[in-house]
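Long-time lurker, first post. I've been practising inverse folding by hand and with some scripts of my own, and I keep getting stuck on stretches where the structure tokens seem ambiguous. Below is the full token string for one chain I'm working on. Before anyone asks, I'm not after the true native sequence, just a reasonable design that respects the backbone. If someone could post their per-position residues I'd love to compare against what I wrote down in my notebook.
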């Protein structure tokens, strides 16, 4: 990496982007539907120190890798470097004047685990780059859209806005009911009493930039077109039933999943966690059978958690691997290898 002089550290900043758990509402975001995610306390921290010159130096601490590029012309790269270069390019394209900096990235959310290390990284990068440049923070919904462009146009994953909104707008102690058609966001307090939400890694790593995610998205687009709607969530359930084929199944999942989000919000408001568990199970069955986004490792993990006494368990996130979310009733011992998760604060400067 080219040597550059670090300017005195008084303008160094640290920013934290949280990962997310999605309680329910999977593959609904890019279909104009509903979801119920929350930010978690694990995530990515980016430390930004000002540099003289005109470059950005980056250290991915956990990977032992580095990058180095011109601030004014980040250029393309693969893997984690695409996130950094894309974030710099998109902030600049949004009219924000960034400053040369040395960035150190540290994560305590595993990559490819389904807890959205990507959104955590994007959010932390944005806040650190804005902070070190002394730039004003844009509206957070706009920032979430910007992060999503990084993912779509620089990383090559056609993901929706779920993860970025959860990371940038999450609230300590609450989940967010997000309507992706209007971008209306409502906080739903998550007071679980003695119940516990946990995640377990299925052991099958996933990547949104490859495999089934982009394919499912294309199928949803085809289904919406066949049903004559802009958003699959607006489709007539009867017409979706008649559609048949993979497109019909994808549509059925999306329509039913939106209803499950509403039912989960209602059950949480009255503290009916048994019903929440059944809705998680129903979501999993739908993601497996209608959305066809499961893999054997995820099935084995769901079964293990159910055998251990979970009231509900489901694959979480984009699918084809990653994490499983489970709801454990009071008194249920946590099975080996699971991690308790609770709603934490949104992305922030530390
Ligand atoms: C991934 C994507 C999100 C969303 C989920 C599925 O996490 O990043 O945009 O589509 O999958 O609900």
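-- Answer (accepted) --
I ran through it position by position. Result:
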């Amino acid at each position: 990496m080219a040597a550059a002089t670090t300017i005195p550290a008084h303008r160094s900043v640290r920013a934290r982007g949280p990962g997310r758990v999605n309680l329910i509402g999977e593959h609904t975001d890019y279909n104009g539907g509903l979801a119920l995610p929350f930010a978690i306390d694990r995530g990515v921290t980016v430390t930004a120190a000002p540099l003289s010159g005109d470059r950005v130096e980056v250290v991915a601490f956990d990977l032992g890798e580095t990058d180095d590029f011109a601030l004014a012309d980040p250029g393309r790269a693969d893997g984690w470097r695409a996130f950094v270069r894309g974030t710099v390019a998109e902030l600049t394209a949004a009219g924000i004047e960034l400053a040369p900096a040395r960035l150190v990235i540290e994560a305590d959310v595993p990559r490819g685990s389904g807890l959205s290390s990507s959104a955590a990284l994007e959010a932390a990068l944005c806040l650190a780059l804005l902070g070190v440049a002394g730039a004003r923070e844009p509206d957070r919904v706009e920032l979430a859209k910007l992060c999503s462009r990084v993912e779509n146009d620089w990383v090559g994953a056609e993901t929706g806005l779920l993860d970025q909104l959860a990371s940038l707008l999450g609230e300590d102690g609450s989940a967010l009911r997000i309507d992706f058609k209007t971008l209306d966001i409502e906080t739903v307090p998550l007071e679980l009493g003695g119940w516990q939400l946990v995640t377990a890694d299925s052991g099958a790593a996933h990547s949104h930039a490859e495999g089934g995610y982009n394919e499912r998205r294309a199928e949803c687009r085809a289904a919406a077109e066949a049903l004559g709607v802009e958003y699959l969530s607006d489709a007539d359930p009867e017409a979706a039933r008649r559609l048949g084929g993979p497109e019909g199944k994808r549509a059925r999942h999306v329509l039913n999943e939106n209803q499950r989000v509403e039912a989960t919000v209602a059950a949480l408001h009255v503290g009916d966690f048994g019903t929440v568990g059944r809705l998680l199970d129903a979501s999993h069955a739908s993601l497996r059978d209608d959305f066809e986004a499961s893999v054997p490792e995820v099935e084995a993990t769901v079964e293990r958690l159910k055998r251990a006494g979970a009231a509900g368990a489901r694959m979480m996130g984009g699918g084809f691997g990653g994490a499983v979310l489970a709801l454990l009733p009071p008194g249920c011992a946590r099975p080996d290898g699971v991690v308790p998760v609770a709603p934490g604060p949104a992305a922030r400067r530390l």
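A couple of notes from the structure itself: The mean pLDDT is 94. Residues 245-269 form the longest helix (25 residues). Happy to go over any region you disagree with.
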